[in-house]
Amino acid sequence: MGKDDLRDIQLIGHDLNELEHNKDLSSDYIELNMSDMRKMITGLESIKQEWRDDFIDKTLDLESHTWHNGLDEYFYFVIKEMQSLYQQISDDYLQTPDLSISMVAEALDDEWLMCPYCVDAWKSMSKDAMVLCPMCTQTLHNPRFTQS
């Protein structure tokens, strides 16, 4: 999965968060948002097909449901399921080295990493292959990752 794939995954996560927390959304807005998410997830060839299919099915379900029922309990239940799926996709990405990315976070000590792009430091105990800078959202190789 490359940087563009991760950027799309992060956009999907952002959109899901907005859908969960904004209670004043119109059906038209939700339909457009679901359509955009479907386009993004369809273009992500690097994720598991079952995740892609499940995510697309949920967007179609929400579109149809919202037109008839609005933002009810079921809507927020499905959004939570989609957020869980988004988290699985993100976690899967971070656990595998991304050879399209060359930059490595700098280990300042046993707990802190620093981003070479924005020079922000953050506490991280992650042993995953990749880490995300919380300030600039750049994806970096984790200097603590050791392949088994």
Task: Walk me through the topology.
Layout: H1 3-21, H2 27-42, H3 49-69, H4 73-94, E1 106-107, E2 112-114, E3 121-123, E4 130-132, E5 139-141
Antiparallel strand pairs: 1-2, 2-3, 4-5
Helix pairs in contact: 1-2, 1-4, 2-3, 3-4
Describe this entry's structure for a reader.
It is a single chain. By secondary structure, the protein is mainly alpha-helical. The chain folds into 2 domains: 3-94; 106-141, no CATH class. The protein is 53% helix and 9% strand. It is built from 4 helices and 5 strands; from the N terminus they run ααααβββββ. The chain has helices spanning 3-21, 27-42, 49-69, 73-94, and strands at 106-107, 112-114, 121-123, 130-132, 139-141. It has a 3-stranded antiparallel sheet with strand order 1-2-3, with no helix packed on it. It has a two-stranded antiparallel ribbon with strand order 4-5. Strand 2 and strand 3 form a beta hairpin. Helix 3 packs antiparallel against helix 4 (73-94). The model has no long low-confidence stretch (mean pLDDT 90).
